[in-house]
Structure formats: structure tokens, C-alpha cells
Write a structure and sequence with these properties.
Elements: E1 7-10, E2 29-31, E3 50-52, E4 60-66, E5 69-75, E6 82-86, H1 100-105, E7 109-113, H2 132-142, E8 148-153, H3 155-166, E9 171-177, H4 186-195, H5 205-209, H6 212-217, H7 219-232, H8 247-250, E10 257-262, H9 270-279, E11 283-288, H10 295-298, H11 300-312
Parallel strand pairs: 1-11, 6-7, 6-8, 8-9, 9-10, 10-11
Antiparallel strand pairs: 2-3, 4-5, 5-7
Amino acid sequence: MTTQDKDYVFGRRHLFAGGLALGAAALLTSVGSAPALAAANPTALPPLVPVPMPQQAAAKEGMAEVNGAKLWYWDTGGNGAPVVLLHPNSGSGLIWGYQQPVFAKAGYRVIGYSRRNYYKSDPASKENPGIASEDLLGLLKFLGINKAHLVASAAGGSVAAAFAFSHPENVLSLTVSSNTFGVREGDIYNVAQSIRPHIWEEVPVHVRELGPSYRVANPAGVEAWIELNKKSSNGSVSQKLLLNVTTAMLGTLKVPTLVIGADADMSTPASLSRIIQQRIPNSELAIVYESGHSIYWEQPEAFNKAVLDFIAKHK
């Protein structure tokens, strides 16, 4: 199959207010983002406006016994096609408050979980750190799911990509935002490494992962993001990789794929997202204006529309 180079560009507008965050009593806020397909002039878009997130859909929480560890998850249930959300290293299963109710309302069974080392899940042990993509397979089996749409942000994209390469029969579609698909060699890896300054780890995580427009427009949303980041980690032993993804492997990916990038992402900018998408057959590209690395949080409406439009084609 040939690459479907459908390059969507999203702007933003005002959103409605209301709601509480999943699993937290604090009111979380974001910046309104509305999709406006490619021809939109970003200079004509209205100012960013902070708004509360929507009311959450009902979901059950549980602990899944997976490969010798317990993983915390939540599940909206229902008969819709499953959508599994994979969090970045800066978050956990708690971060999807802007996606959970929207995807559920669209008719999907929405599932979020924390990998080992993250909120409420077991820490990875030195003796058995586990493999994150195989833990995902175990979670699907635990929940009785054969096929699912995978939607991932940042480091979650490396896990989702490894899963899609090793278990394509279990994937309806793959969406990866703000990530290089776990590639560890070649031009994509070299570009990603060269972008980061030598002081990268000294920069506060919220500055690395939230864009400047968002930080200026929504200080309350920044604080809420920081609080979720503080809650996220509960372990320090890294999990193993099932495989080392190469640039050449991207051309062999067998599942429908959406790549989402942002113009203000300091580690995976729109230009790099475009390079990655062009290597993947049967893939599409969405670029979001005025967002940093955490597109799902900074520009949730644009993120949600891109995902829902894509997965609707692959039921």
C-alpha cells in the first residue's frame, strides 16, 4: 500500500466549560482547540482561552494481573470498539480527562492504564522489569479484547509501536503523537538527538513538554499538569524493549497509522513528524498549531477530532 499523505493542520477556538478530572477532585483546565482543516490562516485565529475539561463518563477501575505484576486501569465498558490510551513518561492513566468522555460519547469503549512504574501500578523490579508492549498484550487478554485502536502520546508511542510491529493482528489502528515510534538509529534518531540541547534534562519537565502559548495562556492548566506529573512515577527500574525499531522497519508497519505532531514541540517538532509519517505505509499526518509536546492536554479538541476522524475509517 502507498502512503496516504493526508496532511491536516489544526487551529483553535473557544471551548465550553464544565467538568471534573478523571480520578481527581481538582478542577483541571486546558486551552480550547478546534479543528480547522488546512486552509485556515493561523494569524486569524482567536486568542487561546483556558476552559475546564468536560464531565467524565462512567468508568470502572481495577487492577489487572499481567505477567507477574498488577497494572491499574479504568474502562468505560460498552459494546463499542476498544480504544486503549497509552500515556507518556510524564503522565499516567490519570491524564486522559479530555479524551475519555469524548471518545466514550462517540461510541467507543475507552480504556486507560498505567504502565509499571506509574500511578497505582506495580513498580518494575530488577528481577522482573517486564516488557511494556507485552504487558499491553496481557492487559488486552485480561480485559477480553482481541483487537483495539491504540492511541499514544510521547513515550507511550514507543510502546504502542513495538506492540503494532509484534502483534499487528491485535491492532485496529495506531495513533502516535509526539514520538519517533521508538526508532533508535539512523537519520530520524540523529535528528531527534540533535534537537535537544545538552542541558535538556536540567530544563523543568513542564517547560519541555508544554508549549509557550499554553504556558502563557493557562497557568492553572500548567499547575494541574504538573500535579498529575508528580503523581505519575512510582518506580525507577526501566522496563525492557521487546525490539529495537529501526528506520527501515517503519516501511514494514502493517497497521493503519496516524502521526500527530505540533509546531511548538521541542523534542518531536512538526518537521520530524512529517519525516516519520512519510516512511510509514498506509499512514496519515495531522499537525496542530500552537501546541507543545503534550497535544492531548494543550489542544484536546484538535487532538480528539484528528483521532476520531481517523479511527472511524478503520472500524
